[in-house]
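Hi U.,

Before I forget, here's the chain from the pilot set. I'm dumping it here mostly so it's searchable later in email.
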Amino acid sequence: MKNKIDKKLKKNFRLLLLTSILSGVSATGFAATITCTPGADGSYLPGNVIPSCNTVSAATITQPSTAGFYILTRSRLYETLIVGNTDVTANVTGGYGGIGNQYASGAAGASISTGDLKFKVTSVDGGAILGTHEVVNITTKNVDATLTANYGGGNSSGGVAQYGLLTGSTVSSGETLDTGEYSTITTMNLKLNQTTTGGSTTPILNNGIRAIQGATSNATLPNGGRGTAGQVIVNGILDMTLTGNRSVGIYVSGNATNHGVATDRAPVFNALTPKVILNNDATIIINKGTGSSFTTWDSHGIKLGKVRYAGEGPGILESHGNLVIDTTNALQGGGIKMMRNSILDASDSNASTTIKTNGYALEIGGHDDAARNGFVLTYEQAASNGATASFNNAIFTTNGTSADPLITATGARKDLIFVDQGQVAVKLNFTGANTDLTANANGYILNVSGNYTAPNYAYYSNTYDTLGNPVQGQNLFEGSSVTFNATDAGSMTGLVYKGLVKNSQTLTTATTPTLNLNLSNGFTWNLNSNAAAPNADTTTAFFDTTTISNGAVINGAYSDAGGNNYILLGNVISDAGIINLDNATHAKYNDVLTINGNYTGSNGALVKMNTLWNAPGDTEITVAEGGADSESDVLHITGTADGTTTVNPIASNGTNYVLDGSVQQLTKIINTVPVIIVDTTNAAGTFVGTAQTTGATEVQLTSRIAANGGREYYWTMAAMPIVDPVDPVDPVTPTPIYNPSVPGYVETPRVDMELGYATLRTLHERRGENQTLAWDECGDCGLEAKGQVWARIFGSHLEQDGKTRFGMDTDIYGIQAGYDFTVKRNEKDGHRLTGLYFAYGRANTDFSDKYRAVNGIISDDKYTGNGKTDAYSLGITNTYYKSNGTYIDLVGQASFLQNKYDSRSNVTANNNGFGLILSAEVGRPYAINDHTPGETGWLIEPQAQLIYQYLKLDKFSDGTRNIDQNSQSGLRGRIGFRIARNSEAKNYQTNTFYGVANVWHDFLNPKEVNIGQDGLKETYASTWGEIGLGVQFPLAKELYLYSDARYERSFGGADRDGYRGTLGLKYTWK
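Structure:
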């Protein structure tokens, strides 16, 4: 509808008309202050004569009812007009203009600068408080305006208006010299309280801020081209309250020939797009007014862009503070409406936007005003290309009570964001952790469709190319294309929709809109129903592709009561995103999310859900493929599924990767119901996962081919071997899958005992050859011995494969030091050494499981984790040597143990304990050849040893399961012999070299380890052989160095295989 400017307003306030061009008068720049003199009604006309006055003094004034303005600048103003602090009250019978430009030109040097301004104006025909054009910029301090317009006429043209601030060119004003320039109003704090009533046909317009570019001097370029663009900059706080039945808080439009990027200059006349910049906080409140009109109009907090006539084209708004729009009390309200290729940027890191409305919080497209042809209304709609709205920390809500005031068939406006058809390449951008887009219970978050059907609905203009040419015919609209981007840890709640396009009032399936959503960096989409959805699709979201990345979430379990069942009608791409079916308080096992499209997961994509599995857990596996006593949330994909996605079951206490329920390992293999269903052919391993139970068993996600040719993924405790499809083998009985931490829990007691044995070892490993006390110095050495101190380092490597499935690879090293506080000779030339020692030992162990499985298939990689044990030991020794070389070695050892567990599944735990050892060893050397003291001699020495070890470790929990390794006992025996060669060294000391051979045997098997409800144990090779070499030689008269190295291996195989060594020093003093 053509928007004419009211004739009385043009007469009383010429700032809306630009009818004169400077006729060669140049700016001379007056230095002197010339104070302006008011007229009879208190008004001023600077620039009316030469020389012009340039100063309006501060004033508090009440103007008479005949006044039409306070200050209007004329064409002979060539410098800045200074206006002091002003307080004006006016109650006029016509229209009223506060301070504005009528004929002055910024090109000639004219501008206006004011102090604080306060206006309280009541008028009949409206007006404006600040207005300018022709690049005559106005700069003010604080502005406080209370405006009331009570219009008594019909306003059939809709041209009567009340403005707070008005800037830019309108109609054919001939601003040819100013094309491509801004006419700018800059304020500090701006407070506008405006009320309008009247207009029996059309309500009068109540507009707080209007920035426009609409002049033309070429009839072949309708509504566009020449003329300055309006610009308003508010540096302080904006506080705006509008009351009236046709209110717009901020209205920005123009630059009609710009169909590309609104911030670019137009291809015709280099024109600019009007702009409003809010550099601080802003509040816009719109309330319905009194009275009624024949036609009802929309009210918006912000309107950017216009379809046609004066001011056609896009608009730009920047908000850098906290913007609040409240139109919940408007007659037919909306938050922000954008036409054409407008741009709204409220994405500054310090910005936020809160919209509370009874209509759309954000509308793109839709119809503009209506043109009247007699009593027939023709509705105007414009397509666009590139409309962009960007918000930081946006909070949108609507109560949905507003309806289209002109087209009743559209119903209530219950959607948060509506994009009409023909809006191409729309970009909606949301950032900020406080973003909250919560849809009305009967609306969508985002609705992209052809909404309007009504007689005489004219699709005025179509999608433009960059030259401004319509791409399609008058009534052939293409579907909109919208990209919705949301990032950071904000959220939106509800559904999205893309509908059909209307062509001449008829829905067509030939063209559909495009809607793509990109959610990233922790943003959450909570799926919530739309009770008033078309075709009863109350739980379906319609889009083309949704991409979730870097922790963004699609939450299909928004209702904590469970039973959520939503459909995503489109493709989903998860790039490190999360699909969530885990309710807030967990333990709901009946949520279903269906992706009616294709799915791709990558880079750690996750699906979170709740699954319950109780004992006994299953019938036989051959019956119905298992699943008894289990229930679960389900992700159902009707299209293809690619990539890799991890399924994470959440326990009732919120623990990750844990299945609820009492299921435990049984003699049969058991499975759950399917938790992921893909209807089309799908490669195994697209969805993977492992889950903990409170017992030893690990549950893994595996899959099978479904009856429809698709694939079902389910949890299993069964580890199956890889089957060669070319040469399959006979069926193999599956084995239970154990958690990677289990081998460590079962085998660590064995490691602790091996560390105890390694610290004790045999006499000759621990002490070397102590018969030298009798042999040195021709048998006299030991006579005067008072004591002996000794120390050694030791290390070993031992591999053990259990007979059932577990194995371990252990490296042990340590240091040991002792002191014999008694060295006594007896009457039979024997001697006895009594002492104690302290030792520290460390065992590092890699654990393995030969049935370790991945996705239910036995893996070639058997490693399950590692463990570390620190042992601090104290020992007491008593060794008796007879004169014939027979010895008896008695040892008691106590150890404090610290165990640390670290599985490959990142389960960590630790516990402490203690060990006790009692050992008795005997040996008797026999000479192989005759020799005298001091001569080289050979001997053979049969040996036997029996060691009892008791181990007690603390119970512990790894956060998922309770572990009790119980008390363990070991009884290890040895028989063997040593062949030694002793020879004289310098100072009558002795060199010793020997070889050993032993057979070891464990008489006791390990006890069970209790892991949750499961009891497990592993048995190992019980008998093995050992060979080794040892050497001892003197370093000084009373100082010896000794060393021993040995290799061991079980008989009949490599179930036990290892080697060890020691190096020691001992010193005897007299």
